[in-house]
Design goal:
This protein is of the alpha+beta class. The chain has 1 helix and 13 strands. The chain folds into 2 domains: 47 residues; 152 residues, no CATH class.
Length: 207
């Protein structure tokens, strides 16, 4: 009887030892998984083909208006949201002026509505306007603030406000909003221009 107990005791110890080795082996493999993920993600980002979302305004009749940068000579340039990875939660909005990609920002102002402008490398401020089918140019402004979000609108001659959206080539829609990160009025100074808030394409806000 004693030999039987001893035999099963040895078998039990062997099984416990094997389980312990398995557990230790699993623990050693976990860091390798995390290490391997980083280069894989880097390769995925490097191979991502940038997608440019159109920036448009919607008037009350549901018609789309082009939102464009306009220089002092009246030349127009595209304004687009830039998707440079799989995520579409926060995307930069830029003006494509000749061969330059310029920031589009909400500027510091004491006016009722805050100006939305592109900023050139030399500090030149470039208008951002919406265009009707008839070619009329309408202002793009920051019209109100909710927390750190500045709601952007096209303001027509009657004072009506049109929403501004970013639309992907596949038809996905994001809002275009001002985002404020700091409590101070001046968020940042870009090429000598005081900026109140950044402008980003973000998921639609129903408020």
């Amino acid at each position: 009887m004693k030999r039987t107990v001893t035999f099963f005791g040895i078998i039990g110890m062997v099984i416990m030892l094997m389980l312990l080795l398995v557990v230790l082996g699993c623990q050693k493999k976990q860091p390798q998984v995390k290490i391997d993920q980083q280069p894989l993600e880097a390769v995925a980002d490097a191979n991502f083909e940038t997608v440019y979302w159109y920036v448009k305004a919607f008037n009350p009749q549901g018609k789309l208006l082009n939102v464009m940068a306009v220089d002092a000579d009246g030349h127009t340039y595209e304004v687009k949201a830039i998707q440079d990875s799989d995520q579409t939660s926060v995307m930069d909005v830029k003006a494509f002026v000749n061969d330059k990609i310029l920031p589009v920002k909400v500027l510091v102002s004491l006016d009722k509505y805050m100006p939305v402008k592109a900023i050139d490398e030399n500090g030149t401020i470039i208008d951002v306007k919406a265009f009707t089918e008839e070619g009329e140019k309408l202002d793009v402004k920051g019209t109100r603030q909710s927390g750190n979000i500045i709601h952007l609108s096209v303001v027509d001659k009657d004072g009506l406000l049109y929403n501004i959206e970013a639309i992907s080539p596949k038809g996905w829609i994001n809002d275009v909003k001002g985002i404020k990160m700091m409590k101070e009025p001046i968020e940042v100074v870009i090429n000598g221009v005081d900026v109140y808030a950044h402008i980003k394409s973000i998921p639609q806000q129903y408020q």
